[in-house]
Design the sequence.
């Protein structure tokens, strides 16, 4: 990815973050948000993703409802995947629908934060995330 495309994507992420409510900002102060180009092969294998399957984001850590004082847990991290998100917003002519890209970034961040709070994929799907 050329620096201009990466910088443009990062500007979209910043724009989305600037429009999220203060409560979400508070959460993101304690849970790092990383942007990677692709999910690592180890993640793709673990999630049984095929070559054409897109993964927009991933929450790693221990969801709040599963935490216990006696058990240590992994640090929380949210990772969003640039190329999957760009792919979801690419039009047939190869251009990127910037509104759709921002919408997908927003949905992905909120989706992964919901996993932090213990929501399952099925529950999120029912809510439209």
Sequence:
């Amino acid at each position: 990815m050329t620096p201009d495309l990466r910088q443009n994507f990062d500007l979209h992420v910043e724009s989305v973050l600037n429009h999220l409510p203060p409560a979400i900002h508070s959460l993101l102060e304690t849970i790092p948000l990383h942007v990677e180009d692709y999910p690592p092969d180890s993640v793709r294998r673990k999630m049984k993703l095929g070559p054409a399957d897109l993964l927009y984001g991933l929450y790693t850590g221990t969801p709040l409802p599963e935490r216990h004082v006696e058990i240590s847990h992994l640090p929380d991290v949210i990772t969003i995947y640039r190329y999957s998100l760009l792919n979801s917003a690419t039009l047939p002519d190869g251009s990127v629908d910037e509104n759709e890209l921002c919408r997908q970034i927003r949905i992905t961040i909120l989706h992964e934060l919901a996993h932090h709070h213990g929501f399952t994929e099925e529950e999120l799907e029912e809510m439209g995330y």
